[in-house]
Write a structure and sequence with these properties.
single chain, mainly alpha, 2 domains, two-stranded antiparallel sheet, globular
């Protein structure tokens, strides 16, 4: 199921808009608009995954921010105040909405400036295919979503946000290339292939070694130490901090008790790979499949 869901997300993100441009003769405006539609649909589907996972597992990672995003609001006296998010769902949902709305406005302005419009029929066909792929992928993921460790959910959300930034850079690059050469097709053909291979890369295991690579250490040691700390010490300290926080994220928070503001639950027995959620289900005396089904009926 998971492999099929990943394949469907790849089809929605690259095959539909990119294949339509390369093989179906769709215009760059149509393909770019479909890339934006995929960003919106993918973000909404990811928000649903986060909400369901939080409800079904109650893992502590949901009680803090992970994207390092902040929101600035104006007080009644006209002073700006920075607000940090206290839940992963709120942070992801509001950040993705802000990015996609800004991106949509910018895309419309660029297309208007270039005096071009997406083709209606290819746009309709592509949008339906993208929405169907995301709906099916969400359905397949939901079957075992209550067994996912929080780290898997978080990594998938980060990759979706990365795609939003990549498409935004394509819009900027296409505009500059058109102003310079007047031929956006050449630039866009390169972008389609680059995005396809980038999306393929997101399906591969992420490389994050515990020890710093020796070549990188030799290069970084050419620079002065920062605060008396070598690059190796910095790498190990950062990795240890990340691992400790990841272990806290996998802890199950008892019902009626929230994790401290912006933080995970207090340190206890860390249960990696979603085991804390399974222990929480077992403590309630409810078999895992029955609990998942009962939750989904509410």
């Amino acid at each position: 199921m998971s492999a099929l869901a990943r394949l469907l997300r790849l089809v929605a993100a690259s095959v539909v808009p990119g294949g339509g441009f390369l093989l179906g003769g769709w215009s760059p405006a149509t393909a770019l608009t479909l890339y934006w539609i995929d960003n919106v649909a993918g973000a909404l589907a990811m928000a649903v995954r986060i909400a369901l996972h939080r409800r079904w597992t109650g893992l502590a990672g949901h009680g803090r921010a992970h994207l390092n995003a902040t929101m600035t609001v104006s007080s009644g006296e006209g002073e700006a105040e920075t607000v940090t998010f206290k839940s992963f769902l709120a942070e992801f949902l509001l950040t993705s909405i802000a990015f996609n709305v800004a991106q949509g406005v910018f895309l419309a302005a660029v297309l208007g400036l270039l005096d071009t419009r997406p083709d209606a029929e290819p746009l309709r066909q592509g949008a339906i295919a993208i929405a169907l792929c995301h709906a099916l992928a969400l359905s397949f993921d939901a079957v075992h979503l209550n067994e996912w460790p929080f780290a898997r959910l978080r990594d998938q959300a980060l990759r979706i946000m990365g795609r939003v930034v990549l498409v935004h850079m394509a819009i900027l690059g296409g505009m500059v290339f058109f102003a310079w050469r007047g031929t956006p097709n050449a630039f866009f053909s390169v972008f389609v292939w680059l995005k396809f291979f980038s999306d393929i890369g997101t399906l591969l295991p992420q490389w994050n070694p515990r020890e710093p690579p020796s070549l990188m250490v030799r290069v970084m040691n050419l620079f002065p130490k920062r605060n008396g700390e070598s690059f190796e010490d910095y790498w190990r300290r950062t990795r240890a901090k990340e691992e400790a926080q990841a272990a806290q994220d996998e802890q199950a928070v008892p019902e009626g008790q929230a994790a401290p503001e912006g933080q995970a639950a207090p340190e206890g027995q860390a249960a990696p790979n979603g085991q804390a959620a399974q222990d929480k289900r077992a403590a309630r005396g409810s078999p895992k499949p029955q609990r998942a089904r009962s939750k989904r009926r509410h």
